[in-house]
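#onboarding

Welcome to the new folks! Below is a worked example of what a typical request in this channel looks like: someone posts a single protein sequence, and someone else replies with the predicted structure as tokens. Don't worry about understanding the tokens yet, we'll cover that in week two.

Example request:
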Amino acid sequence: MESLIQQIEAKHKKGQVVDARSGDTVRVHQKVREGNKERIQVFEGLVIRTNRKGSLTSSLTVRRIASGVGVEKNFMIHSPGILKVEITKRSRVRRKYLGYMRALTGRSARLSGVEFDRDAVNTVRDKAAEAEEAKLHEEKSELHEAAVAERAEEKAEAQAEAASAKPTQE
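Example response:
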């Protein structure tokens, strides 16, 4: 029989998650809220640490170089704000924690890639995340259509006003 804590955690866990490991280059799709708008932001980088794989609090530490500065983000895999994690490259490493990568730059920071089946690894069906992503996309397209219709209406009004103000020649 499961303990009460495991039952509660099971309700909040995602159905399936990608098996990301240290040394993988991943693309994390994160939902970002700015005021009353929501958008999807993609953060791509090297996984330098994975923590607590089987638990609700499992996380990835992803590092990338942005404008010459190293940027690291911790992502809670089961968080509702994380929509998708895609593995783009898998590298051969012999450690769980790649902290030494912080000191390396340029060619020395390269990891040797390993062949893997990208489609098989990345096919994770999380219906809730897919529905959320579709909803955000639909809202965005509706706003775009409304803006286009409003601009067309303003243009038609301006043309009508210009035509009525134009004196007729006889």
